[in-house]
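Help wanted!
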Amino acid sequence: MREQQNILQRADKPLMIMYLMLLTIGALTVFAVNYVPGSSSFFDLSLTHGRQMIWMFISVLLGLSMLTFNSNFFTKLSIPFYVIMIVLLLVTLVVAREINGARSWLQIGPVQFQPAEFAKTATALMLAKYISGLKISDRGVRYKFIASVIILLPMLIIVLQQDVGSALVYISLSLVLYREGFAVREVIVGLLFGVGFVCSLIFDVRILLWLFSGVTLVYVLLSSEKLWRKEGARAALFTVLIILFFSAFILAFYFVQLRLVLALGAVALLITAGLLIRSSKHIRVMPVLFMYTAITAFSVYGTAMVMNDILQPHQSQRVLTLFGLSDDPDANYNVTQSKMTIGSGGLAGKGYLQGTLTQLKHVPEQTTDFIFCTIGEELGFIGTALFILLYAAFILRLTFIAERQRSPFTRIYCYAATAIFFIQILINVGMTIGLVPVIGIPLPFISYGGSSVLAFSIIVFIVLRLDADRLLILR
Amino acid sequence: MTGNAQFQNRAWVIRGLVIGVFALFLLQLLRLQVISSDYKELAKDRTVRKVTIYPDRGQIFDRNGKLIVLNKPIYNLMVIPSQVKEMDTAKFCALLGIDRDYFDTKMAAARRFSSLHASVFFPQIDGETYAGIEEYMYQFPGFFPEIRTVRGYPYASAAHVLGYVTEVDSADISRSDGYYKSGDYIGKSGVERSYENILRGKKGYRYMVVDAHNRLMGSLADGTMDEAAEAGKNVTLTIDIELQQFAEALMAGKKGAVVAIEPTTGEILCLVSSPTFDPNLLSGSNRSKNFGRLVMDEGRPLNNRALTGYYPPGSQFKAVMALLGLQSGTLTADQGYPCGGGYRMSGHTVGCHGHPAPANVVMGIQHSCNAYFCYVLRHYIDDQEGSTADNLALLKEQLASFGIGVRTGVDLPGEKPGNVPDPEDYNKIYGTNRWKSSNFITLGIGQDQMIVTPLQNANLMATIANSGYFIAPHIMKSVAGEDSLMQALNRRHQTSVNPVFFEPVIEGLSMVVKAGTARVARIDSIEVCGKTGTAENPHGKDHSQFSGFAPRNNPQIAVAVLVENSGFGATWAAPIASLVMEYYLTGTIAPSKQYLLERMLNANLLGNPIVPAPPVALPIEDPDILQRDTVVASR
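Answered by r_m:
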């Protein structure tokens, strides 16, 4: 008893209060969404929000009991928990029935849950366990590769479950790698791929090809200026090879029959040019050239593959919708209804339980993915701004908690939690206000759903438990 | 700690990213919720439906309070496919008199439209038929009736007066300043059109909220924004529907018009254009079946000859010519002119028939002497001060005060003004001022370029009956709360002829019936005044015309009758006018006139079968004389 009081006193109060505020807002909002004027009672636990409150109660109870665990329990748990979750994800992939196009729900008796929700926590713990065990100098390619695999393994399985939304959340964990001192080159490369992807949706690929080639060529020629001054002959040969490479590369897109020959030729030219200047200190353009080749090839071929093969048709439509490229009214429908509902709230909102569009069921998926609409409609800009600020404070508090740790394990875990909450709200709120494609993931603590409330609560309570022992070094 | 410190600045990059994204969200929310009004408008668009409530159109009564236009409920059988359950389809089809094919096609079409919303399954079922189905309807969930009203005409008469109602067209919508919406109804002719604003009432609106499937979910703001509909006003017309039916029966089988006016009030007692049609033919769903046929009909039944028919007035004009002559001082009541079988000018002669020499105005009118009125015109034009052109202009101006050559201002749509030539017309034909009275001498006997509608003829007789004034003919007798309208309708128009000059003309018109060209128009015990006209028709047989009024003292009715291509005025027009007057004044036709009634009713001058007129309670003593069906065969 004394131990528990002690731990409660040591737990971070601001985070806990904000967590409880978010849960309360969640319960009130789920109630408002399903409110039927004159016939719903907030204390009727048989209704949707009632079930949600039972789940919240279970979550808090479980979280409080987790606070009694020893911190070391979590460091020790991380590897087996991760392995179990990977197995569970694989099992789900095989046995799950398809719901809304995804095979992500596992049914055990009467209980249905989404392993992907809990796999986030497992991955965060695993990442913390692995990186905290490294020396500060161990930031090379090998360590980065293993850290990436820890993140990408569950992500890949979830993509195979056709649950692209949940998989995207794992990308946010690269923020943790960034904070832990791994080079951000990959992130920048990733962003460049993203830019290439978006450009290829908007522009004709041939325009893109010439644009990318032109920019890169100018960069390479400017960079070889020193080489020209010091080693004229080598510079001339290098320039010829590079120009031949660009020609072959560009022609490969135009002559379909000769594509393979031209592509191989281009690669051969690039390698020859690379070998030629390998020993030169005066020019470092090869990584840029490889990047150019990869990004351009991806933009021209990869985009079509992503849009047609990886993403499901409705998801491709949503991507197109986001960039204003879709004229499919169905694809625009959800976003329009959502923006309309939020917009109709105005400055002060229509008042709690007064959301006419909510009550007239104009909002798609309004208890889960689009629950933010109800906040927007009933509480207006004042409500949404306060809500966004509360969430911002919650996430920033997590980063402050992370930074005050002596134990790298706790810091890394806290950053993983930060990243997960950040991307969840980024995608969820972003999609309801039309800034992000429609990707169905829940708004933590607010959206209806037992697994989601439980999983997010566990993330928070682990933070609270580890933080309570912030003076210890955990391994 | 050193390792941590090395990358601590990256914590601020991450915080910056979080703050940046959240700031972006706040900006977007500010735009959606506060700055832009687009989403609020859209929300209103998608959630609020304005449901129109159509008021009942006003009913129409005749001058004796008989209901002549009413609103008849019809039923559109609607279906909401998602609510249709297992049912006895065979029984359902039998009740409606449809086959399985119709059922399947309509259900498929309804599903294609929407399974949640009502579509018309079977349109326009009349009240009696629906009453037979109604008790079984509970067996067929998903089907329900939608009541609409269409116009009904219990007397099946007065089509041209009443007009018809139909859906608005795009021109009506753009003219109406936003009142009419597609699918609304509007009066297209007759009283329905000229009193559209009174008859239609005011549409009401209910504001309803709808869900994402566009289903109505209840009132917006508890109905506080709703606007109630106002029913159209009932109106009473000046028409005597029985007289109208009687006159229509007399005109059956003939082309032409009958207009009767109460002289002291200008009220139109009946207005017939023949051939006519049953107004029920253009009501509701009947319209689409019949309208094309009526448009194509050679008899042009949709034309209102009473208001738009252009006919030379012929000898009827002599009465006016006499009045103008007397007023101008170029004629005195006891002036005689010679008539040796016509009026001779250098070149040609205006022929006349054999009759005693006209020693005065009364005799000139009584014997309808052509020569007499050629002299009257000549003196009117030549003997007054001013040029020929001036005096012709004066003639035109004076005729306008009788409502001739100008619209009378009747409150029915489409009236035409007729024609009185003016100096310009002759300048064009003969060259400027190179013409004189002899060039248009037949104007004096209602020919040349003189054109008068049957309505103007009737109005002229009303004016003579009133000894010098008329009230513009009108069809609206009373509407509650429209006093200023009624005042405008009853305004008195004074002619430019002094009342004292009317006496000899009225005497002449009386002598026409007593001992002149229209003895056939006599009514026992009632002194009838009138004048025949036999207008020369360049396209065929002359038009038979008669206009008159009765009784001479205290005139109650003025009538103009025109029967196209049927010969002398006395042959058809005068008997018909006389029968109309007698029926109106006495409520019956005297036994001595039954032979005339029979002949008029049965005459078919069109050479094609008479469209059977609706049953009319005719004042006939022996009903067997009416054997219309055999008329064609016997001719």
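OP: Thanks! One thing I noticed: Chain A touches chain B through 48 residues (CB under 8 Å).
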